[in-house]
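Crash report, auto-generated. Payload:
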Amino acid sequence: MNMIVRMLSYPFMQRALLVGVLVSLCAALLGVSLVLKRYSMIGDGLSHVGFGALAVASAANLAPLAVAVPVVVVTAVFLLRLSQNSRIKGDAAIAILSSSALAIGVITVSLTTGMNTEVSSYMFGSILSLSRSDTLLSVVLSLAVLLLFVLFYPRLFAVTFDETFARATGTRAELFNMLLAVLTAVTVVLGMRMMGALLISSLIIFPALSAMRVCRSFRSVVITAAALSVCCFLVGTSFSFFLETPTGASIVLANLLVFAICAIIGKK
Amino acid sequence: MILECKNLRFAYDGETVLEGVDFSLDAGNYLCIVGENGSGKSTLVKGLLGLKAPDGGSIRFGEGLKPSEIGYLPQQTQLQRDFPASVREVVLSGCLNSLGRRLHYNAADRERASMNMERMGIEELADKSYQELSGGQQQRVLLARALCATKKLLLLDEPVTGLDPIATGEMYNLIKLVNLCDGITVIMVSHDLHAAARYATHILHLGQKQLFFGSTAAYKESSFARRFLGGHRL
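Recovered output after restart:
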């Protein structure tokens, strides 16, 4: 108990927990749709692009989030367009784009500041990396993501379950796919400060997969995924705080554990 | 007159895939669209739903019907078969087109979903997961969803594909029941000419153009039916 009070007494921990809980919620909600629509790899691709953008921004002394959010949003829209165009294979495009962005980021870093702790925190995440202005922007954006998800829930369900039917009944499916991609892009950028570019996609994919092992309706999958995501975040972060392990990796391991438990429960 | 197609033509990248489609339907008709693979059936379906604009001719709906108020039953994709959603959630999503500016479903929508589940005999399955159902049950769920979306016209794209003979028969009977009892016009794309001849009032035979349109009785006497069946008579 004392240790938890001590953990909460640090301002950077308060910020990290606040943003982390919100981002975990966003990632889990969006993750359900993304996994079911077979878009999981988009999240992974976006995180590498996010890394490139953050590296360039810090080399140019620009505000990291203000640069990365628009770049990643544009990439998300572009990737979505590609995966809807059957002539170009979406997964190949994602692979090319993400490794190129990673390469640009790494080259930029090595030519300017060198591989310092800041860069390492972009790759593997750090709870120390959130500044005061980052926190404010993160809170506003993640609340917007949550609000949009709740407002458009029936339409997002319809577009996820059966895009053709949704289109036929006059729903503008492209618009909601776009909404999904943009919200994902924002979530990825917000989450990667904490999780790291290499690990952020697990925040999107794991809770949805775990929830799908044990739940049978869409609503229960969404709620369970959100709850699991927040729990895993809190457990992983505390673990990382006390044992001084990297935050992102600790959260991923917590998620892996939960997934294993859910898989065993689901088998019965 | 609920639907009138005049000299419709569809093309992809400038290449015509279907032309000369010219027919009209009255309320309560049951039309089967038949033809081999690549004959333009799916293209016509997309055209009727307003998902593909015709490259010539016109589609006109009567009786106050809008394209977004067609109860559509698409071909199932693999993705849906293992989708975690309850039957109630799937059926309720058929009320999507009555949302309008509203963000969420209201009591009337839920009532309509319940009624259509009852109509399809799946009310006991309401809280079951869609992925646990048999193929026949899944199709009935999708038919209930289609009924939530329409009061006038059902458009069914190969609704019995992959079903066993018993489930196929049940599905055909349910569709005919909706057609007769509720007076809902039915348009069904089908490979199964025998079922088409048995249930439908009209037949539209496509082969990149309109080969035949008319009553089922007239179709049985036509040369197209015989050719399609390789010389056998219906």
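Post-recovery validation: The interface with chain B takes residues 36-38, 151-155, 157-158, 161-162, 164-171, 212, 215-219, 221 of chain A (CB under 8 Å).
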